[in-house]
Amino acid sequence: MVKTDNAAPPVSRDTSRSAAENVWRSAAIWLLGLASLLIANTGWTAGRAVSVVLMVEGTDVDVVRRDLNDALPPRFTMVDPERTKAALAKEGVMGSFADSLSNQRVRKQALAAVHKSLKEQGVPALIAVRTRRGRNNARETRVILVMGEQVEPVVEEDITLGRNEKMGNKVGPLLAVPLEDIEASNEKAVATTSKAAPEKPSAPEKPSKRARADAAAEPPPPPEPKDDEPSPAPARAAAAHAASEPPERDTPVKKKREKTDFTNALIFVDVGLDVGARKMAYSDPLVGPLRSYLAPGVIGYSVAGQLYPGASSGIAGAKDIGVVFRYAGSLGFGSQTKDGSQKTTGSWTRTAVGVRGRFLAGAKNTGPYIGVEGTYGTWGFVFEGDEPIVSEVPSVQYKYVRGAIDARFPFNAFSLIVGAGGMYVMSAGQFSDRFPHATIAGVDATATGAYAFLPWLEGRAEVNYTRIFSSAKPERGDSYIAGGALDEYFIFHGGIAAVF
Q1: Mean pLDDT along residues 401-410
Q2: Which domains does the chain possess?
Q3: How many CB atoms lie within 10 A of CB 56?
């Protein structure tokens, strides 16, 4: 066999083994580093994750929930609202939580139940959204954000979304700043928790006897400041800085005033046309020319107004106390006897002025909105002319005080308003001259249908019935003797009402 110098040297088995070990060692280091990064990232993300209770009510619940999940930052996770609903039910708060806040009778209980539930679940906040269908397929939405650290809701807004408008376009910006505050509070809590549990230091080794003896011979070193205590110079600088800074205070969340409508307006005005009828009849007319009277149709006009000076103040009670006034007059009309031999002209006027209070007695979207008022007024139905019939027909000029109550029930754009009142008549003009001992009183009832063309403008159709009754109480020698009289009025009003 011929040997050549070109033959490759044999490969050492030990060299191959070292190369393989280097490869595996490098791979292990890379995998270990990658795992460390994943673990660190997972821990950082867990520390930043924030859970909030999401309560969706009303129509299109699934669509609304999906839109909200897309609108909220990804670090926020939604918690099922069942425990919160159970807490509300326990306090007697049924139906929509978002609408219950508009009812002053249950608002306090509802907020207390939510705060208690948030504390028990360890969740910092609740987001409640109620939607319902409005006109032209718009979605009328109420958004509530309650934070565990705030007594009143941080967000309490009514918004309207168009037919194809995404909820996140309006709800996202509305909640952006409060959610940042919630996230900052959560990060602060996580940091505090991590600092509260430091690693336990290992016990120092026990020094030898020689070392202890050498340490005793040396003078003691000056005391070092503790980790949590600043040195004197920085401490004085920090104290001076703190003195120059104003003390921190909780910044109250300013509640935005609701949009003006017919339930919270500063000024209310109603103008329109009236068509009325009057029927007057005496009971047991014995002495004197006493004619009954019937006017089937009298055309007139009317204007009414309400003013609530404290409406924009936001002060409970004061914002819903105001003044009310009304005036109505008729066009000139004539009356005549059945045979047409005698004629007279007449006029019909009504005035009232007084105080009024309003309050919500139910949920905001269903009412009722209650109004209570007390007024002083006049009611004149007077005849003029030179014919003898003028002294026989029943001219009246009532002066009265009246107490009344009414209720408004909204049904989307349509509202139904019903009311009733009672009158104490102090005098009646010519009627009182004929029957000076008479006692006179009255009652009335009203039903109104209103349709809102705009939030501040609505058309109205109203029917009113007023019944004034008297007991004449005649005495011997009186020029007019009758048992009493019944004076009835039917009025139809059509008009436009506006609020500012």
Answers
A1: 96
A2: 50-192 (3.40.50), 267-499 (2.40.128.100)
A3: 22
